[in-house]
Structure formats: structure tokens, C-alpha cells
Amino acid sequence: MSEGEKVKGFNGHVYFTIDEIAHMLPGPARLMHEIGTRWWKVYYAAKEGNWALAEYEIKETKELFELSMTTRPKYVQWMDPFMGESMKRVEDALKAKNWTQFEEAYNQSVKDANDYHKAANKPLIHWKLPSTPPQDIELKPQP
Predict the structure, then answer these.
(1) pLDDT value at position 9?
(2) What is the number of domains present in the chain?
(3) Distance (Å, whole) CA 72 – CA 113
(4) I need a labelling partner for 77 at 20 to 30 A (CA). Which of 28, 29, 93, 115 fits?
(5) What is the pLDDT of residue 98?
(6) Which parts of the chain fold into alpha helices (H)?
(7) Whole-model pTM over 0.85
(8) What are the Cα distances from residue 73, in Å, to 16, 32, 80, 130?
(9) Is the pLDDT of residue 134 over 70?
């Protein structure tokens, strides 16, 4: 019996071993869906001039990437440079509130992400920006 099978925690309904909890942690297959949704919102929030919302969504995207790198460290070699270079350029453009710079950096980040998917032997994953803005959030700046 491993140490992870001995230690248990209770969630109010059932006891779980540490190994069972570790197995439940989300990996990239689950997290990338939310990353893609937030990355979509970054673009359309910035397009509406809602720089604060775009910055919030990029912050949340980074946290999801960090979680993904923790649960699946084999992808760090691609996620870390994406965050440090591609996302950084997008963040810099957001901070400057410069749409032209932002759009160029954002489009490059999408290309970079797809190149990283290929490098990670996942060429079937080819993300694209949806042609319509998300409908579940107000994108215009709020007073």
C-alpha cells in the first residue's frame, strides 16, 4: 500500500485517499477548454475597449496554465515559453491600451499556441478565435 493510499480526507460525504484526489485533478484536456474560453474573452473585451476585463481574463488564463503545468509537468516545456513570451506580449499591449499592438500580439499568440500543439505532438488541436464575441458576459466597459 502506498503512502497516498493510507492518507484519507473527508469531503462531508465520503473519504478519499490522496491517490484518489490526485487522480481527480484536472489536466490539460479539461483545463484547455476553459483556457480557450477565457482567451476568446480577452480578445473581444479588448476590442470593446474593456481593458480591465481583458486583463482580468488573461490573469485567470495564466492561473489555469499554472494549474495545468502543475498537474501535467510534461507540458511545461511548451506552456512556460507561451506564457513568458506570447502572453507577455499580449499583456504588454493590454497595459498600453493599444488595440493595434494588441491585435498583432494576440494573433501571433494564437499562431504560437498552435505551433506548440504541433511540437507537443498534438497537431489535431488547432485553436482559432471564434468569429463572434462570447454571449455570456457583457464586454463593454461598465461604469
Answers:
(1) 87
(2) 1
(3) 17
(4) 93
(5) 97
(6) 3-6, 18-24, 28-47, 51-71, 76-81, 88-96, 99-119
(7) yes
(8) 24, 15, 10, 29
(9) yes
